[in-house]
Protein: Glutathione peroxidase
Organism: Acrocarpospora pleiomorpha
Amino acid sequence: MSILDIPVTTLAGAPTTLGELLGGKSALVVNVASRCGLTPQYGGLVQLQDTYGERGFTVVGVPCNQFMGQEPGSAEEIQEFCSTTYGVDFPLLEKTDVNGDTRHPLYRELIGDGGDIQWNFEKFLVSADGEVVGRFAPKVQPDDPTLVSSLEKML
């Protein structure tokens, strides 16, 4: 099975697959949280979406509450926070476990043999054909030259 075939559910509760959600675009998949010291990275993620969205790219946010309970809200609260505080207009998935026995299949595929997710805002570049082409640590900012260079090469 390709990573694009993995079933996911949007924050609004609609079942889909990663491939249907992306619609032929490449993506930066990021586990996000609203009450984290790294939460201001939402601003940089919105900027990436604005800059590269028309070139076949999207950010996909995956809320996760596994790191010190930093994403405690309901789907509605998460959506409202993201849209009103940061102007998020990229897709958000339902709250998901990214580590442990309940790790979502999307994260099993993203991580492969690469160990656990370290913290909120760990980032994975995924090509339009479903290949994981980069992994970036949580503190790597969305405008980091290495991340941006990898993104531009992928497009």
Q: What stands out?
A: The first strand starts at residue 7 and ends at 9. The chain has a mean pLDDT of 97. The chain is about 30% helix and 20% strand.
